[in-house]
Amino acid sequence: MNRVSALCIPILSLTLLLTGTVYSSSYLAHAEKAPDWRVTGTPEEQLEALVKITPGTSHWMPEIAYRFQTMYWAGKQDKWEFAEYQIEAMEKMMDRVATARTKRAASINIFRENVFGDLDEAVKTQNFEVFEEAVAIMSSECMACHTREGFSYITVPAVPTKPDSIVLD
After folding, report:
1. 86 near 71, Cβ under 8 Å?
2. What span, in angstroms and rounded, lies between the C-alpha atoms of 77 and 149?
3. Residue 138, exposed/middle/buried by CB under 10 A (0-12, 13-18, 19+)?
4. Domain map (residue ranges) of the chain
5. Taking the CB of residue 126, how many other CB atoms lie within 10 A of it?
């Protein structure tokens, strides 16, 4: 290594260190001065900000799909309590979507009326054939809901793939 290279490395390191320090201290100073809408906003502004940051339907649907997969495979493996737990979780998530995205509430209510009662009963029978019929109805109702909402290209298989789960075999 020549003498110029030997001097450049420490100078470059010092420059990066100082630049990072200046940048981060500048950021902290700015962050401290930035108004916090949660504290300074009017109730209307706070509500508007909360609505903006509330996750949309696309945030919840992958989680609901995962619960659907897990429910199916739990039933297939005779883990009925776990299947029931997945149904309860899906119902809660559907409630969140209906609350957060009110324009979807009518479709969600149709889905709930056509799916969850029969699905709950099917799990209580602990009979996979009965359960599988309820799952097929659920899959069909998912597709009907997607179509009502303009997302018919998002398809749901009648038999979902097995999810990664430490509970399932």
Report:
1. yes
2. 33
3. buried
4. 3-53, 57-148
5. 12
CB burial readout 11-20, b (16+ within 10 A) else e:
eeeeeeeeee
pLDDT digits (tens, 9 = 90+) for 83-120: 999 999 999 999 999 998 899 999 999 999 999 999 99
Residues listed for the chain: 169
Domain range 57-148, its CATH number among 3.30.930.10, 1.10.3720.10, 1.20.120.10, 3.20.20.370: 1.20.120.10
Q: What does pTM read for this prediction?
A: 0.73
Cβ neighbours around 94 below 10 Å, total: 21
How many whole angstroms separate alpha carbon 13 and alpha carbon 110? 63
Cα–Cα dist 59/150, whole Å: 17
